[in-house]
Amino acid sequence: EELKKIGQENNNSDNSILFIAGVDDKLKRYPFWDEVIETIDDDYKIQLLNPNNNLINSIKDREISVIKTSTYREAILAVAKTKIIVGAEGSLIHVAAALGKKIVVLDADFPFQKQTFMDSLENVVILNNHICHPWYDNNQKEMIRLCFLDKNGKAIKNENPCLENISPNSVIEAIKALKA
Known about the structure:
Distance between the termini: 29 Å
Largest sheet: 6 strands, parallel
Order of helices and strands: HEHEHEHEHEHEEEHH
Strand content: 15-25%
């Protein structure tokens, strides 16, 4: 109920796109944000949520708004005020789904709809390029993709080859599809 209220109070219908670019978890970092942002149509208002300085400095030919938040509530409000949300699968993407936003979600599995309790995926584009299906139980009571394991079967931390396999062009095309 609180999320619905926030969404109704902050609904924005302009051509704004919020890129959830500043994430602490290296497994959720998309390496091509700069290329997507530089290439996307100029009629979008681009907002970056908590980006690092390297990303800000790499964007030369595009006007961007940087949104710095210090609390999760502030991040939720940034999501609520934006028309299209783009980011790797994570909690703010699920908040966007609960708010009924248009979403481009990177590296999600298709149970995404069940995880967000959505009735449909009409306003959601899921981009993934999992080079390592299926998931594998590595006897540590966790499910992990095969590409996250080294040759000895130990989990590799801080790497996500699946995000690197999502092309910037496919992200741009997904955004265009949601705009239509």
